[in-house]
Amino acid sequence: MGADSPLPNDVPTLQDLVRGLRAESAELRTQLRDQAQQFQRTIDELRAEVAALKAKLDRATTHRFGRRSERTPKPPKSPGDPTVKRRHDHGRASLPAHLPRRDTVLDLTPEERRCPGCGGDRVCIGQTQTEQLDCDPTPYFVRRTIRKTYACPQCPTTVPVEERIRTATPSTVGPINKGLCGPGVLAEVIVGKYLDHLPLHRQVARIARAGVTVAESTLGDWMKQSAVLLTPLYQLMLERVRACPVIWSDDTRSRFAKPGERTMPQGHFWVTIGDPTVPYTLFHFTTGYDAATGPDRFLGGFRGHVHADCLAQYNGLFANGAKHVACWAHARRKFLAAGDVATEAVEFIHRLYHLEHQLAPPDTPERIAARHATRQSQAVPVLNDLKAWLDAALVAALPKSAVAIAIRYVANHWAAFVRYTEDGRLSLDNNLSERTLRLIAVGRSNWKFVGSAKAGERSAVHYSVVGTCRHLGLDAAAYLRQVLPALHALGEKPTADQLEPLLPDVWAKRQQSRPLAA
Predict the structure, then answer these.
(1) What residue segments make up the domains of the chain, in order of their start?
(2) pLDDT tens-digit profile of 52-67?
(3) Residue spans with biased composition (Basic and acidic residues) (predicted)?
(4) Fewer Cβ atoms within 10 A, N terminus or C terminus of the chain?
(5) Strand locations in 262-416 (E)
């Protein structure tokens, strides 16, 4: 019926017309309501996406320009507290007493000693002393090994030559057979590359300043042969770490060169650190990021506690009996990234860290038991309150928001996060592994990549030795100067009993006992 058509006069027809208009109006209202709800959902999704992108931008900006420290803020101390350090309470520290002193005496000439008043000589009434730290350039020298040969002039020629003539042993000079380097230079190059992050071409230039020309390929060959020499010691340390009750483990990436490929594939260095009874730092290089070549191979058979991130690569170890101890520093990092909505969770974690700061190190059975008791009485209630907050906050949070991701990260691995309270030997976080991996991360900015997959495996051996020395506070160069020739003297297949005196911790104890014995 058109808009200009006359309306019918009978009531039933008009009623049918009104009913049709009502139905059409109701249908239009339903469509408008559905469209409004759809628009509102779209608006909510766009707002959530904008908020997520803004939070991501804020995290990136903070990561690039903001404060990076994750140190737990400590409660302020009152001015009257005797432990409060005054602002200007500082000064130059005295130089170590074990360093040799070379004196330079400044004196007056006979003319300057003469008194202008009476013409007599002045008398020395005192002196002032100033100490400065100084050094000489690296003193390279040539080590000549002379092997004398003796013969018996009385025996007839019928006596075998090997009985009449004898030459001083050993027949080969180490630590590298027919190598140009002595133990001191080889130790310095290893420490320079793997501890001081100096690539070999820079070390070539440093050696050249002393007037010695050594090719970079020669230094590379030294690294290859020294890794072979250190491998038996590395295997013994790995065997003992696998048998200790508590370890810390983590990984970091490193590219490696692969023949025939234009781009460098991504490899990984895995680190494992033993407990104080087996204080060794072991590295393992893999060309992939799978469990079979990573933790399952490197730590296969381990049944103790593993401090590690919540990576799927460790699941095989946990399925076979190892116990996962999760890292609260990683959890706190995720809650900090979530912003103000996760402030309460961060405060709970800070309370856990404040408690840990008051605990003694787990170096005796009594302290281990005390740590366990304190955590059970004080940390467990905080964890229970945190778990209640997580459950309540997850219901109100958007599924894809940063706070929901952080909550699910902790909630899905809650048993691993609270496991540290079950044993006083365990740690609240895995920061020990992260600090150790800086050895790779800092060096990576200098050498960029490892030469090949085999070079990565050899680098893991070197990093394990110098990393263990750093972990124990030892002079890695002094350790290698003694251990490298000793390993060469043991031959190709030394036994565990022969290698044990050369372990870094055993060597350190022997060095400490020498002055007492003398």
Answers:
(1) 227-321+430-518, 328-429
(2) 788 788 878 877 777 6
(3) 58-73
(4) C
(5) 266-274, 281-286, 305-307, 323-325
